[in-house]
Amino acid sequence: MTFDRIENIDGAVIHHGTANNRIYLLSCPENKLPGIHETLLDLATKNEYGKMILKIPAEHFPLFQSKGYMKEARIPGFYDGTRDCIFAAFYLDQKRQVLENESEIQSILEQAKQRESGSASIKTCPADCSIEKLTPSDANDVAQLFRDVFATYPFPIHDPDYIISTMNSHVIYFGVKQNGKLIAISSIEADPSKRNGEMTDFATLPSARGKGLAGLLL
């Protein structure tokens, strides 16, 4: 399997590959943003990617909007708790703009809107379980759980050495253990310099689902 790559190109951190057939700009020095579109477009054209998505400070979005980008999402206070983040998308393959499961997405959104903020109940942790911050000694179990849950993934999360490398870099893992066995995982990609983090890679063994473990990890 060919995994995606994360590259640093002139200070910009870029995730790209065939798994999602896209480029994802994770970060970029703000003084480099005016010229980053051309760099990304060259890379996308060379690799025949269908989409580019950028994570940028909101005040820079008008520049990219003028180049044909669309706003996909906005996160208030993402940078240092004071500046908003915009996810801006540029489609090289226009078919990527079409939602194949739009009705399902709208149904989920409507259900979410009908719930009052904070009204959803969080289940308590089962008596035979514990929630722990995971360490490199858990890497084999983390990789095994990911193998059991994710048939494919753009990065080698099935490899314990890769898990350890991310732990030593910028990813914090939490897990639910039942009588010592790891049954659920979540992770957060932390950026202390900008005081934010992204929750990623929630995974629960099929036999342990329905107990609200993902909510507890969140």
Written overview of the protein:
By secondary structure, the protein is an alpha+beta fold. It folds into 2 domains: 5-96, 3-Layer(aba) Sandwich (Aminopeptidase); 129-217, 3-Layer(aba) Sandwich (Aminopeptidase), CATH 3.40.630. It has helices at 33-47, 61-65, 102-114, 139-149, 160-167, 213-217, and strands at 5-9, 12-17, 22-27, 51-57, 70-79, 83-91, 129-133, 171-178, 181-191, 196-204. It is globular. 19% of the residues are buried.
| Basic shape | globular
Largest sheet: 6 strands, mixed
Name the CATH class of the largest domain: Alpha Beta
Q: What average pLDDT do the residues reach?
A: 92
What is the number of strand segments?
A: 10
Strand order of the biggest β-sheet? 1-2-3-4-6-5
Superfamily (CATH H level) name of the largest domain = Gcn5-related N-acetyltransferase (GNAT)
Task: Name the CATH architecture of the largest domain.
Answer: 3-Layer(aba) Sandwich
**CATH topology tier name of the largest domain:** Aminopeptidase
Strand content: 25-35%
User: Could you spell the SSE succession in H and E letters?
Assistant: EEEHEHEEHEHHEEEH
- What value does the Rg take, in angstroms? 19 Å
What is the end-to-end distance?
31 Å
Uncertain spans, ≥5 residues at pLDDT below 50?
none
H/I helix tally: 6
Structural class designation:
alpha+beta
Name the assembly state.
single chain
Q: Work out the helicity level.
A: 25-40%
Total domains, how many? 2
